[in-house]
Amino acid sequence: MNTEVTLILEHIGKHIHLTGDEQDYFVNLLQAGKVKKRQFILKEGMICKHSSFVNKGCLRGFTLDKNGFEHVLNFAPPGWWIGDMYSMITQKPGVMNIQALEDTDILQLSKVNQEILCTKVPKFEHFFRVITENSLVSTYQRLTESLSFTAEERYLNFCKKYPMLIQTLPQKQIASYLGITPEFLSKMKKGLLKKR
């Protein structure tokens, strides 16, 4: 099996069982890409036409407010999907920017090919429903956390959600995700270490 598609097939295999022919059909619909550090695969105002699966590296999804401040919505490390769901579903211009935090290898599935895939291999309907439901749950949790949780609680949840990113992400990115300053994050982490 091509190592480029091993991770995505393992990921899909957790939700649905594919025959060899179904795997081949799916793989032929994917488009492989390499994204350089700081390069965008989607910018605000564009229509999202692909879901992107990260094979290696890391992407981040963020919005910009009217003052130019970034608000990180999510990260996509290896094994994660990312896209602007609103724009993908409505095919209207979105507000999300998706950018590589490091050199990143992705596999993209276009909206058109996703629809073809679900028609030809109906079990993918189930797979994409699960992925969409997980994304909705994650968005709901993120909204609840930002409205009701302390910065410390949000940080501890971030550590559970993205354990592989704690040591590798710049503090600035984590702070933006949490809605706090990098200085406050640094101070809070020192306080947590003292509690242990």
UniProtKB/TrEMBL annotation:
<dbReference type="InterPro" id="IPR018490">
    <property type="entry name" value="cNMP-bd_dom_sf"/>
</dbReference>
<protein>
    <recommendedName>
        <fullName>Cyclic nucleotide-binding domain-containing protein</fullName>
    </recommendedName>
</protein>
<dbReference type="Pfam" id="PF00027">
    <property type="entry name" value="cNMP_binding"/>
</dbReference>
<dbReference type="InterPro" id="IPR014710">
    <property type="entry name" value="RmlC-like_jellyroll"/>
</dbReference>
<feature type="domain" description="Cyclic nucleotide-binding">
    <location>
        <begin position="34"/>
        <end position="112"/>
    </location>
</feature>
<dbReference type="InterPro" id="IPR000595">
    <property type="entry name" value="cNMP-bd_dom"/>
</dbReference>
